[in-house]
From TrEMBL:
Gene3D superfamilies: alpha/beta hydrolase. This is Pimeloyl-ACP methyl ester carboxylesterase. It comes from Streptomyces clavifer. The lineage of its organism: Bacteria, Bacillati, Actinomycetota, Actinomycetes, Kitasatosporales. The chain crosses the membrane at residues 25-48. It comes from the Bacteria. The keyword Transmembrane helix applies. Residues 94-109 have a biased composition (Low complexity). Keywords: Membrane, Transmembrane, Transmembrane helix. Residues 93-115 are annotated as: Disordered. The keyword Membrane applies.
Amino acid sequence: MSETSAGDVAATAAVAAAGWRRAGFAGAAIGVIAAGAAAGVAVERLTVGRGMRRKARLALDASGPYGSLRGIPGRAVADDGTQLYYEVDEVEDGAPGRSGARQGAGASSSRRRRLFGRKAPGPVTVVFSHGYCLSQDSWHFQRAALRGLVRTVHWDQRSHGRSERGRAQADGVPVGIDQLGRDLKAVIDAAAPEGPLVLVGHSMGGMTMMALADRYPELIRDRVAAVALVGTSSGKLGEVNFGLPVAGVNAVRRVLPGVLKALGSQAELVERGRRATADLFAGLIKRYSFGSRDVDPAVSRFAERLIESTPIDVVAEFYPAFTEHDKSGALPAFLDLPVLILAGDKDLVTPSSHSEAIADQLPDAELVIVPDAGHLVMLEHPETVTDRLADLLVRIGAVPAEVP
């Protein structure tokens, strides 16, 4: 980056921080953190007028089909009474699936025909669990590819997407990964009470699956046919440096828990400041979501929408759970199963070394490190992820092998 560009980045970050200061102490704190990470913001954010960027975002929101796929809705009830929203895509006659499945699939529809050829045999249900600050729609491409070929369940984790805000959290109970594992059990009981299961989880969703295995090993033993862990970790997330220098990451670790707690208590104020600095945060989202430079702008904007839709108080209440997360002891529950472990080689949130650590405990698993990929690998390189999932499903007979 040139001296002029670096100066512009710093100036923009300083302006953003100043805006947060006007919103109050909590805003100032997050502004400082944002300024510290702003060196990674794409330069085009600083060279295009704000009004033009706003119009571009509106145009992408209007034309982009991502996140538009819908299934049969349902609700499960967690052990604290929280209602968890899920959708089911059933297997239908006339594969490759219902006509609506092709909406927004793009090249994925032809890929779907090549991979599977006809309707999947057998009553397998594939359950997709999404990551932190996302929703079930983050699996858009994989959902489009599998639709009509195998039964799938997509659900929103508590306080995310269309699920209810965690009732225990409203009463002051901290959310933990163990709670998410129990939530997944409630969704399975409601949406797929019988038959073999394939569990697929990204980031926090993979951790949720580990918590399920820890709490309900008999469910894994009796019903789970295969597992896919995408961009996730079994522990030691407190050691991740997020691509920052040592001094920077140490400073962030010291202040971030307190800052998030303060922000969560002033949610309305912070959301106003968040909107005021949308361009800066869009750059940060891009940096920490993707590893390649040529991401489809509509996909990048879709990721922004998913993350921006998560209220700041939800962000704050979930964050401590990750530093406490340690489910390496649950991994042996997957030892006798076909397992896919997949990560991006440029993931700054759950680095690929964490996937390699999981693979060390599951030596028979297939480990795939996707080149030029970041944390949202299933959106950035959708066909790579879909192909690997298809291979896994073919291995267990959930879908047929390619027909010549």
